[in-house]
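In this supplementary section we document a worked example of the pipeline. Step one takes a protein sequence of length 305 as its only input; no multiple sequence alignment statistics are reported here. Step two produces a three-dimensional model, which step three serialises into structure tokens for compact storage. The input and output of this example are shown verbatim.
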Amino acid sequence: MKKLIPSLLAWLLFLAPVSASAGLGPQVAQVAEHYLDTRPALSMETCNGLIEDVLRDTGVEIRGSVRMLYADMQQRGWVHTRTVPRPGDLVFFDNTYDANRNGRQDDPLSHIAIVISVDPDHTVHMVHHGSRGITPLTMNLRFPSDHRDRNGKVVNSFLAANGYGREGQRLSGELWRAFATPEREGRNASVAAIDRERLSAPIEPVTLPVSLRDPALRRAWEGRRVAPRHLRDRTCYELWFLRNAVYASHGFAFNTFEAQRAFSAISTYRRDTSMTAERVRDRLTRVDHANVERILKAERAAQCR
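The serialised model returned by step three reads:
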């Protein structure tokens, strides 16, 4: 009975009229928000269990682990990587916990959530199932390394498990992989055509947080000392970028989409797939290590983590 009542309401939401141009998204978002309000028992108390139940209540049958869901949706043409999603889109994340239990941040497609709304400043509000059950989650891909904005609003939730990712990314925006827009099979062809056109749109070009002529970036990239004065009045995103520029200068193969996209905009970045975290640490000079520590200190002072 506990499960029946939420499911019944979800079906009522599913049957409610939605404009043809909106597609399935608003129904998915409505049902997901209802799950957040009522916290019903799931068929599986996991992040993918939440996705399966919400999609089932909106007429879409799809099952599997997060990796299986991603592969399935990619094959269906649902996956995209624009930085502003729509309500009802699914959100995939990398490196949220040590899935393979090897103590390293090499766990792609480890988590999934559902978008319920998007603010004018592009802060995305989501529902997910984590260690505390069904809870809200926020993300803003414009400022992926900022936990709060200048007004104190939370724009990126801490998502990586405690004790995991302390030397790397821990915020939702840093761990984001991609979005997916689900469709119901056999729905109106014109609506499907509109969505396919949206999904095939080019990825929004990345805007680097600092100029390529920025003295701090040039010094970090060239292995010269980055002084404290170069780090004053920086945003958390700028500090994250400058710190990771030290590793990028040695060809480090970042395993998060955000870092890959950001540094691919720098023509001198040569991604070396063999350059693991262990190898790149061995390549760092004493100046490099000092720069990383200095930037980390600035990040802690700015309460970035």
